[in-house]
From TrEMBL, chains A, B:
Family recorded in the similarity comment: Belongs to the class I-like SAM-binding methyltransferase superfamily.
Active-site residues, as the UniProt record annotates them: 447 (proton donor/acceptor), 456 (proton donor/acceptor)
A GO biological process held by the record: regulation of DNA-templated transcription
Binding of S-adenosyl-L-methionine, residues: 325, 334-335, 398, 425-426
Keyword Transmembrane helix in annotation: no
Residues the record marks as site: Critical for specifying symmetric addition of methyl groups: 328
Signal peptide: none
Domain PRMT5 oligomerisation: 479-659
Ranges for domain PRMT5 arginine-N-methyltransferase: 298-476
GO molecular function, one term: protein-arginine N-methyltransferase activity
Name of the featured protein: Protein arginine N-methyltransferase
Keyword entries, A-Z: Methyltransferase, S-adenosyl-L-methionine, Transferase
Length: 662, 662
C-alpha cells in the first residue's frame, strides 16, 4: 500500500520532496487516531508525488501538547506495528516534539526537555528511523549539542540529525544564520551525523541577499530546505509558484538531487486539499528543474569521486596499472592539445628545413603520446602538401616493464614497427646515447604533471635528460605554473579527520602510520566547498632547464578572507604551456574544456580557522628536497586581536608525505 | 564481443564453469599469435557456455617454453590492449607459468623461478586480474609460501591465489592431500587471500574414499575443482559424462554455486572441438544440478549471514529494536510450538477444574506470545466444545518502554483491550503483586533463550519471579539443555582474527577494546566448517527453581578428534522443553524443522589445534557469576607426545565477555 510512495521515487531521478507534518488545529482525540494512520498517510502523499513525510516521533497527539511544571507530557504514541518495518525507514523521517527545548531559560523546561529528548531519540532508534529533524530555537544551544553528542556516543546507530534554521535571524538575536549553524556544529565536534536545513521565511536575513555569503552554504551539508505554503503565490496562469525572491534563493542553494531534499509544509493553514499539495509540489519542482538538468550528467560521472580524498600518484616509485593508464588515455581534449603542440613544433622545424627529425617520448606509458605524435606527423605532411621530404624517428622511453609489453603490442599491431621502444628510466638515457641506441632529440615530449603541476616530479625527471639534449631541442611542455585558492569545506575537513576509520580514501594504507593526516597534499574532486578568495599564482618551472637551476621553490601568497567564514585549506591547480600558445589548464577560472585527467589538489590546514572578521591570510609554502625525496612544507600567518599568529609548520622535513626520487 | 561470456552467466544462477588453457602441442609461432587472440577466445568459449577462462599470465608462448641454466625464458606476452580492461577482470583468471618452481631442488631453477614469479605476479597486478592459479608441486613449498606472503604484504591489491592440488598423492610422497594444503596455508599465515582447488585425478587418494575425510574440505575455502577430459566417459545414450566415482566426489564437494567454480581442461588432448567442450560442460553441470536445486533457496536467505560473526544479544542491558522483534516474530514453527505447549498446559488445568486461570507472559516484547496464548485459549475452548466455563486473564510484562507502545497498540487494535500490560523488569514483580496490579500466575511463559540456551540469562530472570509463583505454577519452558560439538573451520578462525579490521561482525564495537577476540561466545550461521565428533550434552536448567539452587555450572566433555584434522572451536546448540513432550531444538541431529530464530553459538579456541593423530580432547567449561554479571570460562586438555597439555584459560573472570545482570 505505502509502496505507492515510490511512485515518483526511485526510477525517475526527481528531487526527494517530503511533507512536513505539524497539525495544530486538531482535537486531542483526532490526533490520537491520526497517529495510527501512518500507512494511509504515506500512501496518500505518495500518490500525490511525495517521496517521504516528516512526522513527529512522538505522534501529533504528543507534539501538540502543552507541558507544565508537573512535568507531564502526553506519552509517545506512534505505534510501530501499524506499518511494515521497511516502510518506516523508507518513507518516514521524524521530528522532535516542538516543545522540547533543553536550552530554555526556564530550568524546569530545560531539565524536562533533556529527559524527553532521550525518550524520543530512543524511540527513533527503536523504529529504525534514519533522520530526526530538530528546529534550533536559540542562537546558542550548548545543552542540545551535548544531548546529541551523548546520543551519538552511546548508541551504535546510523541515525542522522537534521538541524533546521530559519532564514531570518529573529530567533537568533540578529546573528548571521550561517554563524549560528557553524557554532552549533562546532559544539557537536563537527560530527558527520549532523546535517543542516533552512526553513525559508517570508523576509530573508541580509546574508541571503549576498552572493558571497550564500556560497558558504555550498560548503555545508545542506541536506534540506523547508518551504511553507505561505511563500507561494498565484502566477498569471493562476498556477501556484514560489515568490521570485524565494525561487531565486532555492535555485541558488538546491544543487544536488541525490543529497538534498525539499520539505513542504503548511504551518498556518492546516486544511489544504490534495490539489493544493500537488500544486505546491509542482511549483517547487518547476523552480529547480533547470538547475538539475545541467547537473545530472556531471553528477552521474563524478558521484563516486566527489569529496573522496586520493593520495597523489607516485609514478617514479610505483609502476602504474593498466586500468590507470586506461583511464588517463580517455582524456581526448588533453591529447588533442598535445597533438596540436607536436604538429606546431614539427612545422617550425620543417620551416627551418629539418629533414630527419628525432622525437623522444619520455614516459610513454601505453603509447597515447606516440599516437598523438603519429597523428601530428600525418597532419604536418598534409600541411606541407607533401612538398617537403622529411622523416621523423620516434623513440618511446618507458621504465614500467609491464607497459613495455603494451607498447610492443601497439608497435606490432598499430604502428607498423615504426617506433623504437626503450625500457629505461629517462634519467639514465645517457647510456643509450653512448651505445647509439638513441639519438639526440629535436623534440622531447612528456606528460609528467600532477594536480599541482610539479608534484609528480616532472622538474626532476626532465632535468634528468639534459645530458642528451641538443642546444635547441624543443621541450613539450615548455613551462608550467601552479595556483592556490583558499577554500571553506566542512566535508573535506571531516573526511581527512575520519580517514583511517571510514576508508573514504583509495590507497589509504599508503599513508604513513604515524603521519598527521592533514599534512598531505591530497587529490580530490571538490564537491561540498566554496572559494574564499581569488586564485593566486604560486610556482613556475621552465624547460629545458639546461643551466640546472634549482627546483627549490618558495612562495608567500596573500589572501583576503571574508567575515564569518571558515578556512579549511587551499585548493591547488596548474596550467601548462605545451608549446607556444598551446596550453592545458585546470585553473578554476579558465579550465580547459572537458579535460578530466586532473582533479584539483588540496593543501589542508590542521584545524578549521574561523574568521569572525574579514582578514588577511598569508599562505607560505616551500618545495624542498634532499637526495631521496621532494616535499612541500606549509603554514599560514594572520593577525588576531592585533597579534601575529603563525600556524604550526605542516609536513616539516616531509615527515608525513614526500615524493620519492627513486 | 566478449560480452557473450555472460550468456550463461549472471542472470541464470548456474555454476561458474571455466576453461583451463594449457596448449602443449602448438608451435612457437602459433603460440605467439594465440596470445594476441584473447578477445576471440573469450567470445568463443562464452558462446559455448563458459563463464571464464584460466589462461597463462605470461601467455602460452612463455608457458610452454623450456628454461635452461642460462636463465632465459621467453618474455611475458599477453598484451593488455587487445581487450577492454573490464573484460580481463570479468572473464580471465590467470595461471602461473608451469615451469616456475621456487622450491625446486635445483638451486638455479629455484632462484630463477623466484625472480620470474615476481615478474608474472607484477604483470597480473598490472592487468587487474582477480585470481592467479598456482599448481603445488611438492609436499612442502616454503619458498613459494614466502613469495606469496611477500607479494601480499607489499602490494595493495585484492588479488587472490588459487592453489591447485591433485587428488592423488604421487607428487606428495603419499602424504594426505588435505595435510599438504593445510601445511601450505599455515606457511602463508592462513591468509584469507588464499583459496584451494582440487584437480581430480584418475585414481583418487585414499582420503577421497572416506566420508569423514572428505568432510574436511567443507571446512576449507575450496573455490574450484578442475576436471579433465580424460575423466569423462560415454554414457548409454552416448552422452559425455563423468565416471561414477568422480561424479560422486564432485557432488560431495561442490556445494555452493556462488563461491565455487568448475574448471574444465584437456591436458592431453589438445584438439577437441566445440561440440566436445559443450558436452563436457553439460556433463559436469548435470552431475551437480540436483545438489544445487536443494541449496539455492537456503543460500539466498542465509548468504548474508553465512560465517558472519555476531555478538549475542543482551536483552537485559540493551533494549531491542523494532526490527529485531520483527525478525524474531517471523519464526512460525517456534510460536506454533509455544501455542501447543500453552494449549496443553491450559487443558491440563481445565481437567483439574481450574476456572479462572492467570497467565503471565514474562518479556512480552511486541506480543508474539500473547498471540500464541490467545490462539491456545481459543483452541482449548474448542477442545472442550465450550462445555467448560473458564476465563483466562493475561498479563504481559515487558521492561522495554518502546515495546510497551507496540503492546498498547495491539491491545487496542487486535486484542480488544483484554490484556493487562505491565511495564517492569520481571525481577521486580513482587511490587506489582503487593499493589494488586497482578495476581499469582497459574502459568508463566517466557522466551529468554539464546543460542547456547542459558546465555541470555534465562535462569537468572526466571529465578527472579520465584516470589510471585504458586507452588504448582506451570513454567513454560520447564527445562533446557545445551550441547557442544568440536568443529574445524579455517574461515571462522580468519573471521575472528580479522574482526577489527574487516568489520565482518555486526555490533563489533561492542567488543571491548582490550579483549581477546577469541575469548567470546559468538553467534554464527555456520557455513564453511565440519564437525569433528558427535554432539555432547553440557549444562541443564530446570524451572521453576523454587529452591533457588545455584546457576553455577561446570562440565568437562570428552571428544575424540580424528587424525589429520584441525580443531577450531566448539559449536553450541540447545534444546528446550516447553511443556511435557513439546520441545524446540537446535541440536544438529534433531533440529526443529524450519526453526530459524537461533543460529548456533561458537566457543573458539585461541589457536587452531592441528591433530596429526587421532586424539582425545577434554573441553572444560564453567558458567560463573558475581553480583553484576555472568560469564563462561573455558580451556581444553589433551595429550601430546605423552605429555598432558592444558590450553590457556579463556575469558578468565569474564574479562573479554560477560552478560550483565542489569
Amino acid at each position: 500500500m505505502t509502496e505507492k510512495m515510490s511512485y515518483n521515487g526511485e526510477n525517475i531521478k526527481q528531487p526527494n520532496v517530503g511533507w512536513f507534518f505539524s497539525r495544530k488545529y486538531i482535537t486531542e482525540n483526532d490526533a490520537y487516531l491520526f497517529d495510527k494512520q501512518i500507512a494511509t498517510i504515506c500512501a496518500n502523499y505518495g500518490k500525490i508525488g511525495f517521496s517521504f513525510i516528516t512526522y513527529p516521533i512522538g505522534g501529533i497527539y504528543r507534539y501538540n501538547c502543552q507541558i507544565n511544571k508537573n512535568r507531564n507530557a502526553r506519552p509517545i504514541h506512534l505505534p510501530d506495528l501499524q506499518m511494515g518495518i521497511q516502510f518506516w525507514q523508507k518513507y518516514v523521517n521524524c521530528a522532535l516534539s516542538s516543545w522540547i527545548d533543553p536550552d530554555s531559560p526556564d530550568e524546569w523546561i530545560a531539565d524536562f526537555s533533556a529527559q524527553e529528548f532521550k525518550k524520543e531519540m530512543d524511540y527513533a532508534r527503536y523504529l529504525g528511523i534514519n533522520n530526526v529533524l530538530i528546529e534550533l530555537k536559540h542562537s546558542e544551544s550548548p545543552k542540545l549539542a551535548k544531548l546529541i553528542n551523548n546520543f551519538l556516543d552511546s548508541s551504535n546507530c546510523e541515525l542522522s540529525f537534521w538541524i533546521l534554521l530559519p532564514t531570518n535571524s529573529y530567533l537568533f538575536k540578529n546573528e548571521d544564520c550561517w554563524l549560528v549553524w557553524r557554532n552549533f556544529r562546532t559544539l557537536c565536534n563537527n560530527c558527520n551525523h549532523l546535517f543542516v536545513g533552512l526553513a525559508f521565511t517570508e523576509d530573508l536575513g541580509d546574508e541571503f541577499a549576498s552572493y558571497k555569503q550564500i556560497q558558504r552554504w555550498k560548503a555545508e551539508p545542506l541536506s534540506f530546505i523547508r518551504i511553507d505554503y505561505s511563500l507561494f503565490v498565484r502566477g498569471n496562469g493562476s498556477e501556484l509558484k514560489l515568490t521570485d525572491v524565494h525561487s531565486k534563493l532555492l535555485k541558488n542553494l538546491f544543487l544536488n538531487n541525490q543529497c538534498q531534499h525539499l520539505l513542504l509544509s503548511s504551518l498556518n493553514y492546516d486544511e489544504l486539499n490534495e490539489l493544493v499539495f500537488e500544486e505546491m509540489l509542482n511549483g517547487s519542482l518547476d523552480c529547480i528543474k533547470e538547475n538539475n538538468c545541467k547537473r545530472v550528467i556531471e553528477e552521474e560521472f563524478l558521484d563516486e569521486y566527489m569529496d573522496v580524498l586520493q593520495i597523489p600518484l607516485q609514478p617514479l616509485s610505483n609502476s602504474l596499472d593498466s586500468s590507470v593508464y586506461n583511464t588517463f588515455e580517455q582524456d581526448k581534449p588533453k591529447y588533442l592539445q598535445y597533438q596540436k603542440a607536436i604538429k606546431t613544433a614539427l612545422e617550425d622545424l620543417l620551416l627551418q628545413n629539418f629533414e630527419n627529425i628525432i622525437l623522444i617520448i619520455l614516459g610513454a606509458g601505453r603509447g597515447p603520446l606516440v599516437n598523438a605524435s603519429l597523428s601530428a606527423i600525418a597532419e604536418a605532411r598534409k600541411t606541407f602538401k607533401y612538398q617537403k621530404e622529411f622523416s621523423v624517428k620516434i623513440y618511446a622511453v618507458e621504465k614500467n616493464p609491464n607497459a613495455i609489453i603494451s607498447l610492443q603490442y601497439c608497435n606490432e599491431e598499430r604502428w607498423k614497427n615504426s617506433v623504437s621502444i626503450i625500457q629505461s628510466d629517462m634519467r639514465s638515457l645517457t647510456l643509450f646515447l653512448e651505445s647509439k641506441e638513441i639519438e639526440k632529440p629535436d623534440i622531447i615530449i612528456s606528460e609528467l604533471l600532477g594536480s599541482f603541476g610539479d608534484n609528480e616530479l616532472c622538474p626532476e625527471c626532465l632535468d634528468g635528460v639534459n645530458n642528451i639534449l641538443k642546444e635547441n631541442t624543443i621541450c613539450i611542455p615548455s613551462s608550467y605554473r601552479n595556483f592556490l585558492t583558499p577554500i571553506q569545506s566542512l566535508r573535506l575537513y571531516q573526511n581527512i579527520r575520519d580517514l583511517k576509520s571510514n576508508n573514504k580514501c583509495n590507497r589509504v594504507n599508503e599513508i604513513k602510520e604515524c603521519s598527521e593526516l592533514s599534512d598531505h597534499l591530497y587529490v580530490v574532486c571538490l564537491g561540498q566547498f566554496c572559494y574564499l578568495d581569488k586564485t593566486k599564482h604560486c610556482f613556475e618551472f621552465l624547460h629545458p632547464n639546461l643551466t640546472n637551476s634549482s627546483n627549490f621553490r618558495e612562495a608567500s601568497l596573500n589572501f583576503r578572507i571574508p567575515k564569518n567564514s571558515e578556512l579549511m585549506g587551499f585548493a591547488a591547480h596548474f596550467e601548462v604551456v605545451l608549446y607556444k600558445n598551446i596550453i592545458l589548464s585546470t585553473h578554476p577560472e579558465r579550465h580547459t574544456e572537458n579535460l578530466f585527467s586532473w582533479f584539483p589538489g588540496l593543501f589542508p590546514l590542521r584545524k578549521l580557522l574561523f574568521c569572525a572578521n574579514e582578514c588577511n591570510i598569508l599562505f607560505n609554502i616551500k618545495r624542498k628536497f634532499d637526495k631521496e625525496k621532494v616535499w612541500y612544507e606549509w603554514f599560514i600567518e594572520y593577525e588576531e586581536n592585533g597579534e601575529l599568529i603563525k600556524s604550526e609548520l605542516q609536513n616539516e622535513n616531509g615527515e608525513s608525505q614526500s615524493m620519492n626520487l627513486s
